[in-house]
Amino acid sequence: MKSIKVIALIFVSVVVGAVVTFGVMYLMNNKTVDMIRNNEELFIPELIDVSSLDEDFIITADKTEFEFVEGFKTDVLSYNEQGYLGKTFKMRKGDTFNPILMNNLDEATTLHWHGLETNGMSDGAAEPNARVYPGEEKTYNLEISQAAATIWYHPHALGTTASQAYKGLAGMIIIEDEYSDSLDLPDIYGVNDIPLVLQAKKFDENGNLAYGHHGMMGGTGMMNRSNMMGMMFEDGDGSNQSTTSGFTIMSNGFYIPYKEVRSEVIRLRLLNGSNHGIMDISTDTNDKINVIATDVGFLENSQEKDFMEIAAGERYEILIDLTSKEIGDEVNIIANGQQVLTLKINDDTDDDFDKPFTTNMISTLAPILMYEEYTGQATTNTFVLDNDQINGKQFSMNTIDETFTKNQIYYLEIDNISNKHHSFHPHNARFLIVEIDGEKVDPKDFGWKDTVYVREGHKVKVQVMFKHTGLFMYHCHILSHEERGMMGRFEVID
Asked: Where are the domains of the chain?
């Protein structure tokens, strides 16, 4: 009886301690929100046009400082000492890009090109020599052969992916092609074609980024164990808004920034660059959102919505028609109930930037051609998502879990049997959704994807083809899940 009482007391102490910890963190975050810099102009990362480069571009991974709270500099990470995040790279289908990663950090890192179809040696994740150690450098050989899209880059080294991404290592990539050239879409970067990286963050009482995981045992066995404060970076099994409850959603590193725009059609390239979470995106003025592109390509036709969802790792391109607005009007972009960007109408900008609304902006965009017509073909590979496991296994760098043949069509079923939502991402792939919970759907409704959000108890079937050989990863893009072992390796062979 005495031992039972002791165990009970220990259990109560742990529970009370956890409640107090989360309570303190919640109060600190709410207190800090009041101090966070706000009402500043949206930061637009520098655009690097790969097509005009006459030499290889060096991307440095750096320890830098950033003022989330005015007057208080906090330690973060960034690429090319930008302060926070990385530069935006613009590429064209047919380009060759050979960036050099130079690691100026105190720990290993990599560059993963999320959404890019590339060879295993340049994918930056699964190959044995993928890790770039402090003071070392690595050249990536990227041949851009895919359609226009908004993709991104971030680290993918075992054990440090989540912490490095959370602290600022991420950047956007814009790919253009003949279809994007022909469309009458807003295309002036930073003016009416605006990159918007949304990230859910927590801060301590001094304005430092607060970071940590709950339950870091097991998994890859190589996780970053610094700054563990018992915080939960989880999506759970509830509503979209609950996934970011208690977090502050930042836009390009700033809290509720503004962007001065003309009364024209504005294009937002949205990236949910958070470690976790799915966000409902809307406007506070009930202006419609026209979705024109998903993760890795244009939709065939735009989709008008009151709101849209974007999960961790996903990208969407949207249009917001401001042609009826007057000088002084404001439209706020809302994510999970939080204001994340204010569009201020100011017609004092250069007339050359004017691009009035046209029906071509929301008519036929680019054809979506399936790898083959889907008539109910059998599943070729199943990925069962459970708590911190895929197909009953945790990640091992010594195992190849799946093998695929280059340019062959596969049907993958992602079955979430866990009690949490998951965001599934296979590298080196563009896929189309053909079934949800056993019912056929029109792939054109979802467009080209590389990441799919699968809620607890549901399953999704996709049609995919792998076009490059090598070793690659598949994993949950809720990064704490990935680091706890919810990941596998696959090989594509000729």
From this structure: 1-33, 47-183, 194-362, 381-493
